Amino acid sequence: MHLIQQIFFIICAGVAIYLFAKKVGSIRRNILLGRDEDLNDNPGARWKNMTLLALGQKKMFKKPVPALLHIAVYVGFIIINAEVAEIILDGILGKHRLFAPFLGPVYGYLIGFFEILAVLVLVSCAIFLIRRNILHVRRLWMKELNGWPKSDANYILITEIVLMSLLLTMNAADQILQARGVEHYLATSPFWVSSHLTGLFDGMSTGALIALERTCWWLHIVGILAFLNYLPYSKHFHIILAFPNAYYTRLIPQGEMKNMKDIQNEVLYMMQPELAPPPAEGAPAQHRFGAKDVQDLSWKNLLDAYSCTECGRCTSSCPANLTGKALSPRKIMMDTRDRLEEVGRNIDKNKEFQDDGKSLVHDYITVEELRACTTCNACVEACPVGIEPLSIINQLRRYLVMEESNSPQEWNLMFSNIENNMAPWKFSPDERDRWAEEMGAS
Amino acid sequence: MAEYAANGEMPEVLFWVGCAGSFDQRAQRITKAFATILDKVGVKFAILGKEEMCTGDPARRAGNEFLFQMMAYNNIQTMNMYGIQKIVTACPHCFNILKNEYPALGGNYEVIHHTTFLQQLINDGRVRLKEAGGFKGKKITYHDSCYLGRANNIYEAPRAVLEALDVELVEMKRCRTNGLCCGAGGAQMFKEEEAGDTRVNWDRTAEAVETGAKVIAANCPFCTTMLVDGVKKQEKEDDIAVLDIAEMVAQSLAD
Ligand code: SF4
Ligand code: SF4
């Protein structure tokens, strides 16, 4: 009987880990579809960012209440997973509470501590559910979240609540069995939380209790393995990707826009033809200016898209969104991820990407959204994991203007004024220092 | 600048006026105020005059990299020819692009925003302010521009100048890193806003007006324009002034 359980467990864990690794591999491939960008400079500053932003969740504390709840879930989740190590070993070796004999009374305290964390996680997740579904916090109740994103968030919260309840029930049953001296259930010191729950199950027969304990154990661990595999399909992948994303986040001032070296050179050779290199044979074909689709973005933009947790902190600080414009930086990130997943599926199916007549601009993100951005950087500043929606917006705008000549009439006027009058308005360059003459005269 | 060069001299600093500061009537007053301060305290400064061109910021932000690169190329040629080392500008958009984006194209200068420059002049005792200036004890709120604030992390210098003016600074709820945009950036200044419920500048100005401040202090000619429009929308133009920090300093200079 034990052997069957052991084998079944090993198969479950093996399949779960294999599937997870496979999905992570395909996400990695998708991210690397993006253009190259070298972000390996200054590792000191990068480690610091990772520690502060991802581990320390520094930016979360701009909103202290959700930050505290979030940290409870996060710390609880990570630490309780230490217990999963024991559970997995128990499962493989067919043991029960493998570590207990080694740790003596400390074991009871440790589990007790885990249980307190479990309660914190449970309560925090319940509050999160209330905020999302009953209080309707604006950023968590916008139309771009309708459908899957909203369910995704709720599934995760409910799963966590279920997992924590299973853990507590399992421990409570365990302790009654210990007290009854049932074989296999060796005595530990009382667990802090579940020792108060034993009353709920006291009336059950030993056989029923063993069944309950085993069922909870199995559901808990299978739940965790399922959760692991759910992650990469969900916004909750951020619990992993927040770390690399914070590491690779921008170190240069937020105001600095990326230079386009190819255009710089083109202008240089136009102005000083003597500097132009002789046309090289077989030079790589010019890629497109700006970004039309996900492959034109940098790999960091794509990593951003997978790291986004759809919290909406960016959108709730976006001046365009706050005044009712179509733009929402969160939607920019969600669209980029959705399109990238679609391109990934296309590649899975056809070996390489086959044109599907769609692109990130137009089919996912509209011109109206892009036009509304004031490049104010509020979204970049707000993001707790160092995502830059503005970087994507800027590249899509470059594509619109330079490849499609798609710009509003007023901008075309501004462009031609700059070109002809060296100023965005229709003034003669001769009047540029008129103010100084006026001052001199007065 | 041409005059300095002709005499074989080098000014202490180049004042980059920018297009708004040169042509826009409201912004010209900021330019004049800042130039007056520099004159008065004896800072030797030059302007490029007719040789200055748009930095290319609105073109680049709108997506027109070609046009930006052409403007940048010409400006860098001019400034490198004169051997410019240090630039001060009263426009945070010019400041950002000159400081952060010209170096990649071969334009390396020390670039300072005018509020930082004013703070230094006050600290060094070169700018001396009236004991009881017109702003002493007045309720004033300060609007962080995006390109000085979030883009370049400069939040304290302008506030330090206001402190030197002895004002009663009342912050808006959204200030510093959380400051709300005026709505002009990203080349929005040059087009109608997209369809929405309200305008960004109306929203921002309403917030500023709510503080009960008599003056809204700004550091950017575009923000100034936007806020002036917002104050008009609220029909408060007789009670509330929108002033650039340079204008406030110019009005408070000791004789
Ligand atoms: S940079 Fe653009 S998208 Fe981001 S907050 Fe500002 S206006 Fe919104
Ligand atoms: S981009 Fe950042 S702030 Fe915006 S929803 Fe995603 S995680 Fe939240």
Automatic annotation (TrEMBL), chain A:
In its keyword annotation, does this UniProt entry include Oxidoreductase?
A: yes
One Pfam family, short name please? Answer: Fer4_9
Record domain 4Fe-4S ferredoxin-type: where:
299-328, 363-393
Any one GO CC term of the record? plasma membrane
What sections of the protein cross the membrane?
6-21, 67-89, 109-131, 216-233
Q: Which PROSITE patterns match?
A: 4FE4S_FER_1 (PS00198), 4FE4S_FER_2 (PS51379)
Question: Keyword annotations for this protein?
Answer: 4Fe-4S, Iron, Iron-sulfur, Membrane, Metal-binding, Oxidoreductase, Transmembrane, Transmembrane helix
GO terms, molecular function: 4 iron, 4 sulfur cluster binding; metal ion binding; oxidoreductase activity
The record, for PANTHER family, names: IRON-SULFUR-BINDING OXIDOREDUCTASE FADF-RELATED, IRON-SULFUR-BINDING OXIDOREDUCTASE FADF-RELATED-RELATED
Name under which the protein is recorded: Fe-S oxidoreductase
